[in-house]
Amino acid sequence: MSQFDEYRTFMKSQFGKWEEDIRSDQESGVPQPPMEEPYPEDAKTIGFPSVESLDLRKPDIRKCLKDRRSRRAYADIPLSKDELGYLLWSSIGVERVIPAYRRTGYATLRTVPSAGARHAFETYLAINNVDSLDPGVYRYLAMNHTLLHVAKPKKMKEKLIELALGQGFAGVAPAVFFWVCIPYRGEWRYHHEAHKVMLLDVGHICQNLYLAAESIECGTCAIAAYDQDKADAFLGLDGEDAFVVYFAPLGKMTK
Questions:
Q1: Which residues pair with 122 in a beta bridge?
Q2: DSSP 95
């Protein structure tokens, strides 16, 4: 028996192998969880211009695919708010809400695929250098394409480097995209098979960010090696019903 058997089994499909007495909450008639985490009704949000208004410097998808690289060095140039909005929309933006999806509730069609249209991830941002935005932590509200200010941590650069286990580029990037899993969104439908497909979903999200970044001559580098407790604490998450799975510093390419 290999020491990796448990992890290899996790990677394999178990659909169709559930025990007969195991029912998901969806099958049991439990109402679905919201497709976006709630926030105060009187909260002030920051809107973005239409993504159609941004001119792409690399509009050819073939060129973006060919040039895509993980980039850890960024020019000391701020991102524009238009560029940030485009990157957020490209990676997880909502295109349409379906009011009665398969008679179980509503669903969202987005710029990225998701198993069962569960879209179990929220995007948080650590903003260091974006025009017209104060440094701090924000959450992207994909349903209405806006930003919600969450916190203004002290010594943010140092905390970002620390939670990234010493990877210094995480602290100097103009923006850091954090993908936070809300596991019950997937568990509600797929029970114990939810966790594999949710991890697949976050890979789709990150690749969309890579390609969108290339199209405006920005660079990013995905990070999966980090301190879980420190990352969750940095964003104010409970670490159980919401936790960081993946993140990616991003900025303008150096010449």
A1: 180
A2: E
Structural domain count, the chain: 1
Long-range contact list for 31-36, CB < 8 A, 24+ apart?
Answer: 31/105, 32/104, 32/105, 32/106, 32/188, 32/189, 33/182, 33/184, 33/185, 33/188, 35/106, 35/107, 35/108, 35/119, 35/143, 35/185, 36/122, 36/141, 36/142, 36/143
| Residue 144 included in any domain | yes
Encoded amino acid at 41, one letter: E
Q: For residue range 163-202, list pLDDT tens digits in order.
A: 999 999 999 999 999 999 999 999 999 998 999 999 999 9
Whether 201 is in a domain gets the answer: yes
CA distance 121 to 76: 30
Dump pLDDT digits (tens) for 13-39: 988 776 667 889 998 999 999 999 999
pLDDT tens digits for range 200-240: 999 999 999 999 999 999 999 999 999 999 999 999 999 99
Q: Over the stretch 6-15, which tens digit does the pLDDT of each residue have?
A: 999 999 998 8
| Domain contains 138 | yes
Domain-embedded: residue 134: yes
CATH code for the domain in which residue 167 is found: 3.40.109.10
Secondary structure E strands in 142-207: 146-151, 175-181
Q: Which domain holds residue 160?
A: 74-252
